[in-house]
Amino acid sequence: MLVEPSQFKPKGYKTIKRLQSKQDLIEAIGWGSLIWVTLTFLLDGGANALVDLSSALNAVNRLSALLATNLLLIQVLLIARVPWLDRLYGHDRATLTHKKLGKPVLYLVVLHFVTVIWSYSISDSLNVIDETLSLINSVSDYLLATISFVLMILVVVTSLNLARKRLPYEAWYLIHLFAYGSVMLAIPHQINLGSDIAGKPLAQAFWIGAYLFVALNILWFRLLQPIVFSGFSGLKVSKTFAEASDATSIYLTGRNLKRFNAQAGQFFIVRVITWKQWWRAHPFSLSAAPTNNTLRFTIGNRGDDTAALQNIKLGTRVIVEGPYGVFTEERRTQDHVVLVAAGIGAPPIRALAESIAARPGEATIIYRVRNSNDAALIAELKEIAKRRGFFIHILEGSRKHPQSWFPAGVNDQFPDHERLQALVPNISKSDVFICGPSAFTKAVERSLTKVGTPLNHIHAEEFAW
Amino acid sequence: MRKSTQALMGTASLIAVVTGFQVGANANPTGGFTAIPTTPTTDPTPTVDPTTPAPTDTSTPTTDPTTKPTPTKTPTKTPTPKPTKKPTPPPSSTVSHTSSAVHYRYGTVQLTVTKTGSTITDINLDQAGATSGRAASFPYLVQLAISAQSASFDTSMLSGATYSVDAFMTAFSDALAQF
What ipTM describes this predicted complex? Predict the structure, then answer.
């Protein structure tokens, strides 16, 4: 049972141009907000009358606070998986930018904290420790702000690569939730005491508006919408099926699933509502084009408790967040398309193959497997290729070189890109969708660059968690 | 961002920051407190919308905020606003009590309350320290306190001076408690 192919018509580079204008708009707004807060600070005479060390430090403290708060809100929004950002950047790029902003935000917050204490201690003629204690003791907002500061350090330090590798995911995740606390505890001292905010209606409106905007986006898209949509649809586990020794499919059924507006190639964050599992959510890729009453996910049996999900009781309630990801047909620019999967990267490729708009001969499926007798979804991919008139190449066996992504065997004296060119003669004029482990994806991308496929024809989304 | 957008944003930002700096160089660093002009002799409860920044109130007899851009705990003497009306010859005795000095984030507040009979006739600010223009709130508080004749009155129109207001209220209540 396959869905009808989509009615998508590739529009060439118009698609990319339109996408870029939207991205530019969003980035300009983000950048503009930083300029705006700097401007309000300057217009207020913030960089004025810097007569001594104390007043200079005070100016640094004000500006660093404004920039840090602004960047922090952008950072929170980036990780909130709001659809209007996700559709433009994809989850991986948004996450990457979120990570990149972590350290600058921390530096600015530390700068703010240090300069406040230093500048006040000079004007109060106290040592820094007494000054800190007097601030914390005299004004409760400062106590909250200090707790917020400590939490922020904790959140960033546990997210540094070094610490991240040593911490179990759950511990890191729980600590990372403190970030919300940190953001909120800092609000009172900003609104009540901030030299650039307190008593300034325009600034107050701007900041309260910014906080509300971010908060409502998170509240709706991350909390309420998943519960409401999943609840209204009555999403339940209707079937599980072992696709291979290392992959399991989970079928969810519900009513009116069109409301999620999901596309083949996307993923959902799936939360199974049982006593043990409800607090742990997993990213699952759709392995079939979504229909109005079924979502099928195929997951690799590895890591924490994905194995336990195979034995899930049928009828268990499920809450899904999403759909996420830009690994979709929307990004296509060309008439010809090549779908490349490796190992557990097969599910989104299988879903794309099912619904992609292509006439017979316009699509090619390449599936890299270790052993074709134990490869998830291989039979389905073959069936789709047969019915839709797509080319399919199963690349089976172990590699000849560690750098190669082709198996050893016939023609293995040729480099990868020549073997690829031989398999797909018009590869340089095709859109290529790649899904697999990141080393595999990179190897395929290298071959594509060599055969002359432009970068904006290459679509890959990494599932780095 | 594309190169062209980057160039555009970069130029616009540069112009904005430079202009901001130039304009700001002539601005007075203001504090958080927004002075709201009131006419206490005719209208004891000001009804001016606190959300609109009031035009600079030249009549406000306060410390000049321009000279105090940084917080300082040095008790700033404010020109003491005396009540405009001298009390009518006292039918009963006139008593004054001075509050203890209230230290808070932006300075120290200490005041002397004078009662004639059971009527508060004068509040003298012995110490009214506040930085960044927050001291501008004290004369209003004195007026409000005298018209309310107690420590319970609405201070919500004095935006941006929460801590100065709290310190004033503490000192005021302390003085009242001594009667």
Answer: 0.71
